[in-house]
Amino acid sequence: MAERNIVLCRDIAELSRQSAERFSQLARHSVQGSGRFTVALSGGSTPKHLYSLLAAPGYKERIPWNNVHLFWGDERCVPPDHPESNFRMAQEALLSKIEIPAENIHRMRGEGQPQTAAAEYEQELQRFFGLKSGALPRFDLILLGIGEDGHTASLFPGNEALNQTNHLVVAPFVAKLNSHRLSLSLPVLNNAANVWFLVTGASKADAVKEVFSASSDLPAARVNPVNGNLIWYITQDAAPGIIAPGK
Ligand code: 6PG
Q1: 179-184 and 173-174: which strand pairing?
Q2: Does the Cβ of 86 fall within 6 Å of ligand 1?
Q3: Starting from the edge strand earliest in sequence, which strands make up the sheet with 37-41, in order?
Q4: Nearest one of 246, 238, 247, 186 to 212, comparing CA atoms
Q5: Atom of ligand 1 at shortest distance to CA of 86?
Q6: pLDDT at 109
Q7: Distances from the Cα of 162 to the Cαs of 94, 104, 185, in angstroms?
Q8: Nearest C-alpha to atom 12 of ligand 1 is from which residue?
């Protein structure tokens, strides 16, 4: 099990600065090593600040965007211009402000039929990573968040998609959202070289505390890169259950 490294931050601004700094270092290091940097972006609201920072002076020019390939860890089943679209969030906060080749942006087709869109994205991953059947892609970096229920990407507690090991991409129906989602499967998350959780807000504190408890099987607790680094970037308001008082 990968060690959970915790980076405790005062607030979302510090969390975004710390993760942006490490993102730009890792990007240059990966491109020097393999000629490219493959990233699966997270959705939700927490990473938006980071994405904006990566597109800002001081970071933008330090990232070799021509060699960066952006994928998504999950997507809502909506068109790319829909307010709930994870693609749209990244487009507005980052993609529209940087020079990155269009072919380096590998969007999940949320507007498609869920199972078909999942199969298409699986084929895209197999093509891009040059995978043999049954092999897993190895992302340089996967960004994740956590929901109040302990879900991550779009792998929700009690949903069979969480135990799916035969597919790289799943299309779970999430009853409480009354909608489908698209998501990378757990084996793909755990095959990454680096996985970073970005977590903020007191509403996440209970889920975070449980994830860090010994016996949790919450989806976010099951993210343990087999041969990779795991960092939890957490703001203090989300960390009372895991940080010693007065830290
Ligand atoms: C999504 C996400 C999801 C998200 C958490 C946290 O599409 O919603 O990928 O897993 O990371 O729900 O969301 P917030 O950052 O908005 O709290």
Answers
A1: antiparallel
A2: yes
A3: 4-9, 229-235, 194-199, 141-144, 37-41, 68-72
A4: 238
A5: 7
A6: 98
A7: 29, 28, 7
A8: 147
From residue 28, give the alpha-carbon distance in Å to each of 25, 63, 69, 180, 206. 5, 7, 13, 36, 36
- Each residue's pLDDT tens digit, 10-33: 999 999 999 999 999 999 999 999
By most ligand atoms within 8 Å of CB, the mutation choice from 87, 108, 151 for ligand 1 is 151
Place of tokens 């590998």: 106
Q: Flag whether pLDDT at 132 surpasses 80.
A: yes
What is the 8-class DSSP label of residue 165?
-
Find out whether the beta carbon of 66 lies less than 6 Å from any atom of ligand 1: no
Q: What proportions of the chain, in percent to the nearest 5, are helix, strand and coil?
A: 40, 20, 40
CA of 33 to the centre of ligand 1 (A): 31
pLDDT for 186-228, tens place per residue? 999 999 999 999 999 999 999 999 999 888 999 999 999 999 9
User: Model pTM?
Assistant: 0.97
Q: Is the pLDDT of residue 241 over 80?
A: no
pLDDT at 240: 85
Q: How many CB atoms lie within 10 A of CB 11?
A: 12
Q: From the CB of 219, is ligand 1 less than 6 Å away?
A: no
